[in-house]
Amino acid sequence: MSGKVIIVGSFDWEGRLELSYQRALEALDFKVFQFDLEAARSKVTPLGPLGRKLMAHLDFTSLNARANRQLFSAAKAFDPDLIIVFCNQAVRAATLLQLKISMPGVKLVNIFPDTMHNMRDHVILALPLYDLFCTHTRAALPYLRRLGCSSPFYLPLAADQFLHCPMTLSGSDRAEYACELVYVGNWREEHENLFGVLDSFDLAIWGPDDWRKYARKNGWVRGRWRGRPLLTGAEYAKAHLAADICLDPIDPLNIPSHNMRLFEVPACGAFSLVTRTEEVQELFQEDETVVCFEGADELLDKVRYYKTRPDVRRRIAQQAHDHVVHGGHTYKDRLRTIMKELALT
Q1: Which of 13, 133, 230, 335 is placed for a possible disulfide with 235 were both Cys, Cβ 3.0 to 4.6 Å?
Q2: Residue 153 lies in domain
Q3: Does residue 166 lie within any of the structural domains?
Q4: DSSP, res 168
Q5: DSSP string, 40-67
Q6: Element (H or E) spanning 183, and its range?
Q7: Based on the domain organization, do 149 and 272 belong to the same domain?
Q8: Collapsing DSSP states into helix, strand and coil, what is residue 226?
Q9: CB 338 within 8 A of CB 134
Q10: 22 belongs to a structural domain
Q11: Residues 177, 113: one domain?
Q12: Do 228 and 244 have their domain in common?
């Protein structure tokens, strides 16, 4: 494979999905041009720091048009085969239309890794103009068509082997991360309530400050927060590998779909308990490459069972790792699927 691709997204952190796809593209011999639309929008605002904060949440029509013009100019100069817009990036439907008119050979793709609940209005308006609109929620496809999307496409999430890979833990790593149970992620009221049944275990929670600000119903759960998020792939892998059991409760807004941790934790070589959903059961084989739970009672039962069976945990973790890494669930695999669907192979 080869060609030229523009990625429209944010690139300020190695864990960005945009960078996972960029690494995969470059591994497949594509030349990649990054376009940071939020940075372009910030540069055209006349209101200083306040204006930059507002631009992240509001659509100032004329300023956004100026920033989108820069995207159009970059596309004309780079002459890509493909432009990939990530999630809710503020790309105007009118700009996509102009790209179609001026560069009829270029393919336009949106990779939307969020829930439909979080889709912004400007993305909905642009749905008919994408040659492929990729969602990890299969059940969303018929409804996206009703919204005018011409090419909705089911594309599961995946693992980035640069970020999510087995590691050897040092003594200091184990001192920092070792625990019986670990959860790495955002606070949700549902997660706080769920974790409350695990108070007889050593639970470590790594995530943003929301755990301090919003976890109020259960003081024990709030006290399990380790005080910071994990910002690198190495930290993420170490925290999961140092735990006996990794917890993967899926956000209710993601059901019946799946989440990123479904692939990321096995790619690291760790054992996890995952919320049972239709798509989790389609993508993995329960009790062979994934272990599932539904509700607090089953979670507690599964934790008690697997906590005392390290050999079973290791076997399932190894099978899950092989399934993800060698079974077609990396971002390189997802890109091959996209390129085949667009006939760009």
Answers
A1: 230
A2: 3-158+330-341
A3: no
A4: P
A5: HHHHH-SSHHHHHHHHTT---HHHHHHH
A6: strand 179-184
A7: no
A8: coil
A9: yes
A10: yes
A11: no
A12: yes
In-domain check, residue 19: yes
Judge if 25 and 80 occupy the same domain: yes
CA-nearest of 329, 335, 332, 258 to 84 is 335
Q: pLDDT tens, 67-85?
A: 999 999 999 999 999 999 9
Provide the CATH number for the domain around residue 231: 3.40.50.2000
- What does the DSSP assignment read for 233-246? HHHHHHHHHTEEEE
The token pair at 68 is: 């989108």
- Number of domains into which the chain is organized: 2
H helices of the chain, in order, are: 17-27, 37-44, 48-55, 61-78, 93-102, 121-126, 141-146, 171-177, 189-195, 210-214, 219-223, 233-241, 261-268, 278-283, 296-307, 310-326, 331-341
Residue 44 — very low, low, confident or very high, per pLDDT cuts 50/70/90?
confident
Tell me the per-residue pLDDT of 121-135, one tens digit each, with 9 for 90 and over.
Answer: 999 999 999 999 999
Q: Give yes or no: residues 153 and 78 share one domain.
A: yes
Task: State the average pLDDT over residues 182-202.
Answer: 97
CA-nearest of 202, 291, 194, 185 to 243 is 202
pLDDT at 323: 98
Query: pTM for the full model?
Result: 0.95
Pairing assessment for the beta strands 3-8 and 82-86 based on DSSP bridges: parallel
What phi and psi values does residue 54 have, to the nearest 5 degrees?
Answer: -65, -35
Give 270's Cβ-side CA count (13 Å radius). Answer: 33
Identify which has the larger pLDDT, 279 or 62.
279
Query: Which residue reads 């429209």 in tokens?
Result: 8
Mean pLDDT of 14-25: 98
Regarding whether 267 and 193 lie in a shared domain, the answer is yes
Each residue of 205-246: pLDDT tens digit? 999 999 999 998 999 999 999 999 999 999 999 999 999 999
Distance CA 97, CA 262 (A): 36
**pLDDT the model gives residue 118:** 97
- Whether residues 180 and 316 share a domain: the answer is yes
- What count of other Cβ atoms lies within 10 Å of the Cβ of residue 100? 13
pLDDT in tens, 100-116: 999 999 999 999 999 99
Rounded CA-CA distance 70/82 in Å is 17
Closest CA to 246 of 216, 203, 190, 284: 203
Beta-carbon neighbour count of residue 309 at 10 Å?
A: 11
